[in-house]
Design brief:
Elements lengths: L2 H22 L1 H8 L8 H23 L6 H23 L5 H22 L9
Helix pairs in contact: 1-2, 1-3, 1-5, 4-5
C-alpha cells in the first residue's frame, strides 16, 4: 500500500468514526469526549455535522482507490485540519476546554495535516500507484 493511500484511509477511518458516533450516539460521544451536555435541539446541528464527516470519509476512501489525486482535495483536508487545530488551540488557551479534552483531537489535526503536507510536497503530483 502506498504512502498516500495509507494516509487517506487512516483519515477516512477517523472521519467515518466521527460521523457514525455524531449521528447515531451524539450524547454518548459528547460525554465520552468530556464535553458538556448539549441541549436536545443541538443534536440537529450535530446531525448535519455528522453528514459532513461521513461524506468526507467516503470521499477519502474513493480517493484512496484512484491512481492519482487532485492536490486540491489534499489541500482542502489540510485546511480542515488546520481550522480544527486553531479552534482547539483557541478554546484551550481561553480556558473553555481543558487540555485533557482537546489534546487528542489537536494531535490528530497536526498529524493528519503533516502527513498530507508531506504528500503534497513530493516533487510529482500526489500519486497512489
Amino acid at each position: 500500500m502506498t504512502y498516500l493511500r495509507t494516509v487517506l484511509l487512516l483519515i477516512a477511518v477517523s472521519q467515518l468514526a466521527l460521523g457514525v458516533l455524531t449521528l447515531l450516539a451524539p450524547a454518548f460521544f459528547i460525554q465520552t469526549m468530556g464535553l458538556n451536555a448539549v441541549p436536545t435541539d443541538g443534536f440537529y446541528l450535530l446531525g448535519m455535522l455528522a453528514a459532513r464527516f461521513l461524506a468526507i470519509g467516503v470521499l477519502l476512501v474513493v480517493l484512496a482507490r484512484r491512481q492519482q489525486v487532485e492536490p486540491l482535495w489534499l489541500q482542502t483536508m489540510v485546511g480542515i485540519q488546520l481550522v480544527d487545530l486553531g479552534v482547539g488551540l483557541y478554546y484551550t488557551a481561553t480556558g473553555i476546554l481543558p487540555l485533557t479534552v482537546s489534546a487528542f483531537p489537536m494531535f490528530n489535526a497536526v498529524l493528519f495535516s503533516g502527513l498530507l503536507l508531506r504528500a503534497l510536497l513530493r516533487p510529482q503530483r500526489p500519486a497512489l500507484a
